[in-house]
Specification:
The two termini are 25 Å apart. 26% of the residues lie in helices and 27% in strands. Helix 3 links the parallel strand 4 and strand 5.
Length: 246
């Protein structure tokens, strides 16, 4: 299918199931964190109803459509132009029957969906607090990187509202926010069940954390083996190559 690209847009090959995605090089392109999160969540049950909070370009739902046998995934994105671009990627990949984009703030979802509806909620939220970091970027990057339109607590609260009992929550975030994340998750009855630390290289502190939680579950936490992005020769590690289907 031929898709018309707008100024500063490109089509990237995702190297799985012939899927592609449209990105705007002047906006916020997806990073390795979204790819790692989609792989971390690849064992969700068949026929799951999934919600992605802050879907951006739609990278996570697109990869989940390839890696899982989900029934349908709903991506929520507040930026109208990003939603329009993601919708063209959906058309490009013929995923209309499995992947839907909703242009709205996650704080409005209680007006659109009944509580306890989704089997899985997944999110790669903004990492930086609203009042932290440099804000002299374009609007797309500010919204993607800073908690301008919704806070970390908002993302977790909305996940709790949308999830069925024993529903699964998956998130990637920065390690420096880990205490906040675990504290907020437990306060909203999403019990942390699995953590996996992501390192750029060995002998460096981890920068990312992959987290799985289950709504209304009993306490029990598993720490998965470390994930290293690069090997000793500064090349992608074998596990990263496998995740990227190389």
């Amino acid at each position: 299918m031929k898709v018309v690209l707008k100024e500063n847009e490109r089509i990237d090959n995702l190297e799985i199931n012939n899927l592609k995605i449209i990105q705007n090089v002047e906006g916020f392109c997806f990073g390795i964190d979204s790819v790692l999160l989609s792989d971390f969540a690849k064992n969700i049950k068949n026929d799951a109803l999934v919600m992605d909070l802050g879907t951006g370009t739609g990278i996570i739902p697109t990869l989940l459509c390839a890696k899982t046998k989900l029934k349908k995934v709903i991506g929520i994105e507040i930026q109208e132009e990003v939603c329009e671009m993601a919708n063209r990627s959906i058309e490009l990949n013929n995923l209309k029957d499995k992947f839907e984009i909703i242009n709205d703030n996650i704080l409005n979802l209680n007006k659109k969906y009944e509580k306890n509806t989704f089997d899985v909620v997944i999110t790669n939220p903004p990492y930086k607090k609203k009042d932290s970091g440099i804000l002299n970027e374009n609007d797309k990057k500010i919204i993607s990187r800073h908690e301008v339109t919704a806070s970390l607590e908002d993302f977790i609260n909305v996940a709790k509202e949308m999830l069925k009992d024993k529903g699964e929550f998956y998130m990637v975030h920065r390690t420096e926010r880990l205490v906040d994340i675990l504290s907020i998750m437990r306060s909203y009855k999403i019990e942390p069940k699995v953590l996996r630390f992501v390192f750029s290289e060995k002998n460096q502190p981890p920068k990312l954390i992959l987290i799985k939680g289950i709504k209304n579950a009993r306490p029990f936490l598993k720490i998965d083996k470390n994930l290293y992005i690069y090997d000793d020769n500064k090349n992608y590690s074998e596990e990263i190559k496998k995740i990227y289907n190389k």
